[in-house]
Amino acid sequence: MNISVEMIKELRALTGAGVLDAKRALEDAGGDFDQAASVLREKGLARAAKRSERDASEGLIEVYSHLGNRVGVMVELNCETDFVAMNDQFQELAHDLALHVAAMAPRYLSREEVPQGDLDRQLEELRSQALREGKPENIVEKIVQGRLSKFYAENVILEQPFVKDDSVTVEDLIKNAISKLGENIILRRFVRYELGDSAE
């Protein structure tokens, strides 16, 4: 199989891999572009996992106003160096995350940040709902756990499908950026205000 320069460029643009890595992946995959991309993504996510322990205290705060200034968002996105913080890809990620918060109104950053009281109320409501639907007692807990996963996907930003591409979660989006930029990236916090909304 002849590996063209265009194929290597396209694979690099898609995955953020180096020239030699892209060429090697295409050769190993026998020229199969999708297989090569899949292998490089897996390698990138493995590298991202290794980087997740590194300190990320640089970054930026992205401010976004949406819908005629009726919704405002602030997002703190951290990285390891100010060099990456000034990178266009990093800044675009911060903007996309702020846009996502404006559109999807997540309530929590991660599962661990869901207050125990909120979680208890949600579990009780899901349990009562399953029983009202006449579900047998022996499968109620499985149903509750399945519906709790849906609750997390709707309310926890890292688990929400990304607003501009619902085939990836926000967490996957961040991991892809880590593999491309070569630094640990952390969505530290966010806040969303909506005009007239008095919710805490």
Summarize this structure as a short list of keywords or feature phrases:
5 strands; 3 domains; GTP Cyclohydrolase I, Chain A, domain 1; Helicase, Ruva Protein, domain 3; 8 helices; two-stranded antiparallel ribbon; 3-stranded antiparallel sheet; 200 residues; alpha+beta; Tetrahydropterin Synthase, Chain A
What this model shows, in words?
The chain is of the alpha+beta class. The chain has 3 domains: 47 residues, Ubiquitin-associated (UBA) domain (Helicase, Ruva Protein, domain 3), CATH 1.10.8.10; 91 residues, Elongation factor Ts, dimerisation domain (Tetrahydropterin Synthase, Chain A), CATH 3.30.479.20; 41 residues, Orthogonal Bundle (GTP Cyclohydrolase I, Chain A, domain 1), CATH 1.10.286. The chain has 8 helices and 5 strands; from the N terminus they run H-H-H-E-E-H-H-H-H-E-E-H-E. A 3-stranded antiparallel β-sheet has the order 1-2-5. A hairpin with a 2-residue loop joins strand 3 and strand 4. Helix 2 packs across helix 3 and helix 5 packs antiparallel against helix 8. The longest helix has 19 residues. 26% of the residues are buried.
Outline the fold blueprint.
Elements: H1 5-15, H2 19-28, H3 33-51, E1 58-66, E2 71-79, H4 82-85, H5 88-104, H6 116-132, H7 137-155, E3 161-162, E4 165-169, H8 170-181, E5 186-194
Antiparallel strand pairs: 1-2, 2-5, 3-4
Helix pairs in contact: 1-2, 1-3, 2-3, 3-8, 5-8, 6-7
Q: Give the amount of beta strand, in percent.
A: 15-25%
Mean pLDDT: 86
In CATH terms, what is the fold-level topology of the largest domain? Tetrahydropterin Synthase, Chain A
> Total helix count?
8
Query: Based on CA inertia axes, which overall geometry fits?
Result: globular
Structural class: alpha+beta
Largest sheet: 3 strands, antiparallel
